[in-house]
Design a protein that fits this description.
This protein is mainly α. A two-stranded antiparallel sheet has the order 1-2. A hairpin with a 2-residue loop joins strand 1 and strand 2. Helix 2 packs antiparallel against helix 3, helix 2 packs across helix 8 and helix 7 runs antiparallel to helix 8. Pfam families: ECF_trnsprt.
């Protein structure tokens, strides 16, 4: 990869990172409040980065989201429960890194023809979204399901089933949104840009 390609990649990564930060802090862009939790659209940005740039870069962008989410929880700018749950980086950071890895790797494995992108993109979008949902829910159940929290005034043991139900319900529209928006946005980027050409070149070299 030449200097121009490296500079372009860094610029694109910076753009994706800026979008992630914007989605985190501008109301109703990245998080849509529903009860005590939020339906997120940020995972879609991570998945698009993963399928267009590759799993490594997707993991990097996912990590940016996770770190920003973790900082929001520490600085009390998250949701009421987010300020408690997301202070654990195994819940706020790790699942977001794995979104990029899973979605990017799955797309690389499934795509066969540049003219047939829809199915691989739909599957990658759903898989990336479910990776986030399942790992975040698993983290909540693991770390808070037994009531083990410094905030003893909150009965997490009684509250966790409700949290898991609401978050699981939120996960369904998040997966549907990813299945629709990831192909819609990623297809032209993969077909008609230099990024797409380089992505398919890397995929063909691996295969």
């Amino acid at each position: 990869m030449g200097k121009n390609s490296s500079a372009a990649r860094i610029s694109i990564l910076g753009l994706f990172a800026a979008i992630i930060i914007l989605q985190n802090y501008v109301p109703m862009i990245g998080y849509i409040p529903v009860g005590p939790l939020n339906i997120t659209t940020i995972h879609i940005t991570v998945i698009i980065a993963a399928v267009v740039l590759g799993p490594g870069d997707g993991a990097l962008i996912g990590g940016v989201w996770g770190i920003v989410d973790w900082i929001r929880a520490l600085t009390v700018t998250s949701s009421a429960l987010g300020n408690i749950v997301m202070v654990n980086p195994l819940i706020s950071v790790l699942p977001r890194i794995l979104i990029g890895l899973v979605a990017g790797w799955l797309f690389s494995s499934l795509v066969r023809d540049k003219s047939k992108l829809t199915a691989p993109l739909v599957v990658s979008g759903i898989a990336g979204s479910l990776t986030n949902t399942i790992l975040v829910l698993g983290g909540i159940a693991l770390f808070f399901g037994n009531g083990a929290t410094v905030l003893h005034a909150i009965n997490f043991q009684a509250l966790t089933p409700y949290i898991l139900f609401v978050a699981g319900t939120n996960g369904i529209p998040e997966a549907i949104a990813a299945a629709f928006l990831v192909p819609l946005i990623s297809t032209p980027l993969l077909k008609y840009t230099k990024l797409g050409k380089e992505r398919f070149k890397r995929i063909s070299e691996v295969k």
